[in-house]
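Reviewer 2 asked us to include a model.

Predict the structure of this chain.
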Amino acid sequence: MSNTLQEAALYYGDLEKCVQRMLRMRWADGVTCPHCESKEVTRINMRPLWQCRSFRKQFTPEAGTIIEDTPIGLDKWLGAIWMLTNCENGASSMGIHRAIGLTQKTPWFVLRRIRYALDNDSMENMTGIVEADETYIGGKEVNKRRNMRVNAGGRCVGKAIVMGVLDRGGGAVE
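Predicted model (structure tokens):
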């Protein structure tokens, strides 16, 4: 959707655009009730709130996601997710705090929820063209203090393995 931080700030700065984005990601074929899967739903006024005609329950696009029941706006969530997934080295809570204008505790909470969802396989599987790459992070053994060296030989000893996966298209994942 947006390739640069400036484009992301303009796009995710508008709450209605964020709601439409969430709707496209979540319900590509039209909004359905998360309780009974009925397609007979109506939007309540201009708020991002729907009501199921058969089940008579109200719901938002965040229902059933890691974003549900948080006081943090959808625009802040999507901005933080964009930063986490598009920054070369990930995103820290302090970086998001400075970029989005939240207290430091809020991005820490957001990042914790996102990482929890990623760890527990609650995210959707990637489809279509998927790119993967790996690297080793850490300095050369020669440059480390003697008591910190791992003298096992090899170029990868004592380094952390980092892997990144990117979905280039296909299904509903964008």
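The beta strands are 41-43, 50-52, 58-59, 130-137, 160-167. The chain has a mean pLDDT of 79. We have added this to the supplementary material.
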